[in-house]
Structures are given as C-alpha cells and as structure tokens.
Design a protein that fits this description.
Strand order of the largest sheet: 1-2-3-8-9-10-11-14
Shape: globular
Number of strands: 14
Protein name: 4Fe-4S ferredoxin-type domain-containing protein
Keywords: 4Fe-4S, Iron, Iron-sulfur, Metal-binding
Low-confidence stretches: 339-344
CATH class of the largest domain: Alpha Beta
CATH architecture of the largest domain: Alpha-Beta Barrel
CATH superfamily of the largest domain: Aldolase class I
Order of helices and strands: HHEHEHEEHEEHEHEHEHEHEHEEEHH
Distance between the termini: 23 Å
GO molecular function: 4 iron, 4 sulfur cluster binding; metal ion binding
Radius of gyration: 22 Å
Number of domains: 2
CATH topology of the largest domain: TIM Barrel
Helix content: 25-40%
Largest sheet: 8 strands, parallel, barrel
Number of helices: 13
Mean pLDDT: 89
Organism: Oryza glumipatula
C-alpha cells in the first residue's frame, strides 16, 4: 500500500490536471483515446525506459515518477519482467493520485541485429590490467559497469595497484548499448554483443492486457527483415492500439522506405500508427547539440508531400533543448491536414510529440541514486522527499510539451 500523498504533491497535480483538462477542452467532440488526442494536439510525451534496459527496480520507479508527471506512453524492453515492472510503477502512481491518466505501455523490438538499441557491452575483467584507471566505469551513463580492485592471494602491497586484479564487469540488465565505453577502453577489451528480440516471445507479450503498443526498430537498410518480423508477429499485432516504427534518416530514400513499410503494415493495421524519427540514438543526455539531428529529420520530412499516413514523433537526442529547437524550426505543435490511420482529413500537429530516453532517465536517475544504499532496491514512494524531487525533475521535461503552468519548487 502506497503512503498517503503529501499536500504539496496533491497541489502540484491539481495544477497539472487543470492544465491538461484545459488543453483537452480545445478539441471539443474529440472521441479518440486521450493518448491519441495528445498526438493530434502535438503534446504527446513518451518515456523511453530503453529497449535493452532491463533493470526492473529502476524501470518501476521511473514509470511511477513519469506517470505522475503525465506522460502518455512508457516504452520498455520486450521482456515480461520489465513489462511487469512498468505496470507496477503505473499502479502505484494511480494509488497516489487516483485520477491520473494511465499511460499506454509499449514494448520495443528490432528487425535487425545492427540496430544500436539492441546490444550490450561485454568484457572479461580478468583481461583488464589491474592498474587500469577504469574510464569505462566513469563514462557509463547507466552505472552499468562496476569494477573493484582486489588483492591476489599472497600479495601484500596494498599501495601497488599492479599487485591485484579487477573483478566485476558489465551489469547486463543495466546496459542499454550506448557504446560510450567501447571507445574509451585504453586496451580495446570491450565488445558490443548484438541481438534480435524473439518474435515468438514478443507475440505472447502482445496478447497481454497490460501491453498497449509495439515499436519496431528498423535500420532503414531494406524492408526484407521488417517484412519477416511482421509476418512472424502474425495476428498478435491486432491486439495493440498503436504500432510505431522507429527509423533513422537515410536521406532521399527515407520516404520511399517508409511507404514500403506502410504497405506491408496496411493490411493488418487496425489501430493507429506512428513514425518515430530517431535522429541521434541514445545521446539526449549529452547536451544541446544532440537534439539537432532529430529536429533536422523532422524538417526534412515536413517538406515531403508523399510521406506515409500516421503520427510523427521525435526521438534520438531529445532533451531539455528539443522544444526550443522545434520552435525555431516552426514545427512545435504546428498543424497540418493529413489522412492518418483512424483519423481522416483532420487537422492535427505534424509532430505529434516527443519521446525522451537517456535524458529523462538521467534527471530522475540522479535522484534515485541518492536513496541510501542500505535500502537496496528502494521503492521511491517510501522516500517522499526523493519522490517529490524526482517528480519536479520529470515535470521540468514533460511540462513544456504539455503546457503545464510553471510550478514552484517542491
């Protein structure tokens, strides 16, 4: 049972809900699900937990905080335990603020092992020189590398690092494949191990009543593997409300590639579809420059009249600078007329929303890391000061998209 919400938490959410209600009121007569209405307005926000990030404890707490902040969708690894962690976080958020809107739960899969989102770092710490300065540990944004220097039996010189050895390595469930450790290893000992999600297991996940959407990552290098995955998913695809395709900008061939994929999907497309424009994958926590590629991708597509139907959403390099960049490009909540799956000849925002991944996890994760270690896999709702601090961070990211009023510091 979650603890009773403190007054400040309820007050903050009263303002959040009022702002959300005011925005919904602008589209009177809109009978679409609230998540779809958000895409139409251009204020949809998705939290990306990470297609390869499988730390259930962190996923649970992230989902709780961002549900309270008002995201429309939470995207996670296509793994049953991770899906369970997302839904647990959502359930706790709903117990704290019963009127909160439940976000859709999305699972991410890939059609090609070359996709950067589906890989893990790997190395044998026994191959590492004991006096290594451990730059991989320092650069990892997910705290997924832990190395400890231990003494070898019979060695006595604690002051001589070469007399010991390193133990530990990559914490597999925390690694989400950003690759930053690969380039900093001075001994070139770290490898990237790529994989493809099992479509049979994915199909089973899609039959669950707590999975609402699927995202298929594709590299843009051809449609054969996408077609194979689509065929393998079979009728399970009909169980979800939204099908998203995440792809990079591959230049002049991008729109033709998208149209070919849409042709494959069209015969089994019973819900809505979304295109995730993946500008610079897993880089949002780096800084202002990271968001340029995804905004440039949006600008490129906005000039193409033959782009396929569906909602469009930014990802890859998204952070606190993305809204500013979209506004400068004239694309923030700018409307257009488009024939969209399930919505025909309607006025809607060209960019339906933004997905936040590494940056969203970073700003809340630094609060989660403050919870004393003796609590182990801590439930953030048991530490209300940290919950409020994490919520403030999440609202700073979600609020500018949703048009929430500026809230005082909690």
């Amino acid at each position: 049972m979650a603890p009773p919400p403190p007054r400040l938490l309820l007050a903050s959410h009263a303002a959040v809900r009022a702002a959300a209600s005011a925005r919904r009121g602008r589209l009177a007569g809109d009978h679409h699900p609230p998540q779809v209405a958000a895409l139409r307005r251009g204020d949809w926000v998705k939290l990306i937990c990470g297609a390869s990030f499988e730390d259930a404890a962190d996923v649970r707490n992230l989902s709780l905080v961002y549900t309270l902040a008002g995201v429309d969708c939470i995207d996670c690894a296509a793994d049953a335990s991770v899906v369970g962690a997302v839904n647990e976080g959502i359930d706790v958020a709903a117990s704290i603020v019963p009127s909160i809107q439940r976000p859709w739960v999305m699972v991410s899969v890939n059609d090609d092992c070359r996709d950067l989102h589906f890989r893990k770092a790997e190395f044998d710490p026994e191959d590492c020189p004991p006096d290594c300065s451990k730059p991989c540990e320092k650069v990892c944004p997910a705290d997924a590398i832990s190395l400890e220097r231990v003494m070898i039996e019979g060695k006595h010189s604690q002051s001589d690092p070469s007399s010991g050895k390193l133990e530990g390595g990559v914490i597999t469930e925390r690694c989400y494949g950003c690759g930053r450790c690969l380039s900093v290893c001075p001994y070139d000992r770290i490898r990237a191990m790529s994989y493809v999600r099992d479509p049979t297991k994915t199909a089973e996940l899609l039959k669950r009543n707590d999975v609402d959407a699927i995202e298929i990552h594709t590299t843009g290098k051809g449609t054969d593997m996408f077609n194979t995955l689509w065929s393998n998913l079979g009728d399970s695809i009909n169980n979800v409300k939204l099908i998203a395709v995440s792809l990079p900008d591959v230049g002049d061939s991008t729109v033709n590639f998208m149209n070919a994929i849409y042709t494959t999907m069209q015969s089994h497309l019973q819900g809505y579809n979304l295109w995730q424009l993946d500008g610079r994958p897993m880089s949002g926590d780096i800084g202002r420059g990271a968001t340029r590629e995804t905004v440039s991708f949006a600008v490129h597509l906005s000039s193409m009249s033959n782009r396929p139907p569906g909602f469009y959403q930014l990802a890859g390099g998204t952070n606190s600078y993305t809204i500013e960049s979209l506004k400068k490009a004239g694309l923030f909540q700018s409307t257009t007329f488009a024939a969209t799956s399930g919505v025909t000849d309607c006025q809607q925002a060209f960019i339906g929303g933004i997905a936040y991944g590494g940056y969203a996890r970073k700003i809340v994760g630094r609060v989660l890391r403050k919870i004393p270690a003796q609590f182990g896999h801590a439930r953030i709702e048991d530490h209300l000061d940290y919950l409020l601090e994490a919520l403030q961070e999440a609202l700073s990211l979600v609020g500018p998209v949703k048009g929430y009023p500026t809230l005082p510091s909690l």
